[in-house]
Amino acid sequence: MNEHTLGRRHFLKMTAIGTAGASVFGSHLVSAAAATVKTAYDPAAHFELTVTEVEMRRNSAGRMLMARIYQPIGQPKGAGPFPTVLDLHGGAWNAKDRHAEEPMDRALASSGLLVVAIDMTWAKEASYPASVQDANYGVRWLKSKAASWNGDASKLGIYGSSSGGHVAELLAMRPHDPHYNAIPLAAAPTADATVAYVAMRSPVSDPLARYENAKKLKRDEMMQNHVLYFSPWDNIHESNPQEILDRHEKITLVPMLIMAGSLDDNVLPEIQKKFVASYKAAGGDIQFQIFEGAEHEWVPKRGRSPTARARWSKPSSPVN
């Protein structure tokens, strides 16, 4: 198997295991029943999709945050409810929206996952922890809505990219943080923000290290993105996943997958490796996959070799 094919398969494998309430990392397998999933998840399956959009909530800046739903349909008749994934977009906390990872979202949904991509507040609208609050609300909101789109949110997972990966790590490790849970959800007041697993492409696992790297490379815009988001600046320490582990904070440990490009000069592979080692030392299950020849934003781009092999390769028929 080519190394580049592993990323998406690892994600799908994690999803398949997650829907059965199990963790498989190394040779460790602990399974539990998942009676609510009527159709066993098969990464080799292929479904047609219906794509719709709905309003999620209006943020403090007055912008309506939207959700884009990728719902599997078609054969076999009566299939579902489908395992559910929440997509958190990147954009250095200051750009992009629910469309950012559309190729990956379509590929995952076509294999039999209900994928819901949401908008998050930009730093120019509100600084940290606004986007994490959006994601926390998004998890609870999706748990309350998934059934209406033939989804099963009992083992809800997250796919996060770049700064969305940073948000995903914080959300997974601190699902009950009162600052992150600050936005009430009247429709489901008892829902919590716990998740079953997190899969990420190029996450900002150490924002301070990325800031220092941007400073070294004289990337002023990237530096300014950090300054806008981490305001006041001390928040870059409080909300730093690597530093959270270094401080030995009490956290929730969920299975994680990190996919990184060997040529990523935005979030260096060394940053990811350090986070992976620290997460393992804390007792967490985590997989790490390097994609040779890939840069920071390789997944969303069509036509590039690592992207195509990671996103579309599967044991049988390709995903359209």
Overall 3D shape: globular
Tell me about the biggest sheet?
8 strands, mixed
- N- to C-terminal distance: 21 Å
Rounded mean pLDDT is: 85
Radius of gyration: 18 Å
Strand order of the largest sheet: 3-4-6-5-7-8-9-10
The chain-level structural class is: alpha/beta
Poorly predicted spans: 1-6, 19-37, 307-320
Number of helices: 10
Describe this structure in words.
The chain is of the alpha/beta class and 320 residues long. It is built from ten helices and ten strands. The chain has helices at 6-19, 102-110, 130-145, 163-173, 207-216, 220-229, 235-238, 241-246, 269-281, 305-312; strands at residues 23-25, 28-30, 48-58, 64-73, 82-88, 114-118, 151-161, 197-201, 256-261, 286-291. The protein has an eight-stranded mixed β-sheet with strand order 3-4-6-5-7-8-9-10, sandwiched between helices. Strands 1-2 form a two-stranded antiparallel ribbon. β3 (48-58) and β4 form a beta hairpin. The radius of gyration is 18 Å and the shape is globular. Mean pLDDT is 85; it is low at 1-6, 19-37 and 307-320.
List the helices and strands and how they pair.
Layout: H1 6-19, E1 23-25, E2 28-30, E3 48-58, E4 64-73, E5 82-88, H2 102-110, E6 114-118, H3 130-145, E7 151-161, H4 163-173, E8 197-201, H5 207-216, H6 220-229, H7 235-238, H8 241-246, E9 256-261, H9 269-281, E10 286-291, H10 305-312
Parallel strand pairs: 5-6, 5-7, 7-8, 8-9, 9-10
Antiparallel strand pairs: 1-2, 3-4, 4-6
Helix pairs in contact: 1-10, 3-4, 5-6
